[in-house]
Amino acid sequence: MSDFVLAARRRCPPLLLMLLFGSLPAVRGASAFDFDVWMRDIDKRSVSVQRHLRLREAEPARADAAVIEDLYDRMATWFERAGQSADAVQISRDGQAQAAGIREAIERQDFDAAHGAALRIARACNDCHDNYKPFP
Questions:
Q1: Rounded to whole angstroms, how far apart are CA atoms 98 and 46?
Q2: Distance between CA 96 and CA 4 in Å, rounded?
């Protein structure tokens, strides 16, 4: 978390922070609620893409991966505009690259590599939440 956000958390109740940051859409690009919806959709799609890859269902897996890639792009932009640490942006960009890797592996008919990338996305979600999920 940025030093600004940490300092604000010590001085302001969480609801006040949500109101403050919620009033700055140009800085954030989207609300914390939108961000939470994106994370939930990544989680849902992560499970779905793994299932499709196990069954070697290329088209639905590719579609899920494309959505995950787009959602990670939105999250990276959200972190950038919110002034979050470079680490949070990089984690989002890494997830975006993993999702692109799923699609590329499917094109090569390499379902094992695609499944490995999908698992890395699932693990990265868990690793990131402790530090960067906007809701306590």
A1: 11
A2: 27
How many angstroms separate the CA atoms of 136 and 134, rounded?
7
CA distance 71 to 42: 7
Instruction: Quote the CA–CA distance of 109 and 44 in Å, as a whole number.
Output: 23
> In a 10 Å sphere around its CB, with 0-12 CB exposed, 13-18 middle and 19+ buried, how is residue 97 labelled?
middle
* Cα(86)–Cα(1) distance, integer angstroms: 10
What type of residue sits at position 65? Answer: A
- Judged against a pLDDT cut of 50, whether residue 45 lies above it is answered with yes
The structural domains of the chain, ordered by start, are 3-132 (1.20.120.340)
Q: What percent of the chain has pLDDT over 90?
A: 48
d(C-alpha 120, C-alpha 111), whole Å: 14
135 Cβ neighbours under 8 A, 6+ residues apart: 32, 36
* Rounded Cα–Cα distance for residues 99 and 74 (Å): 13
Helix axes 14-22, 32-54, angle to 10 degrees: 90
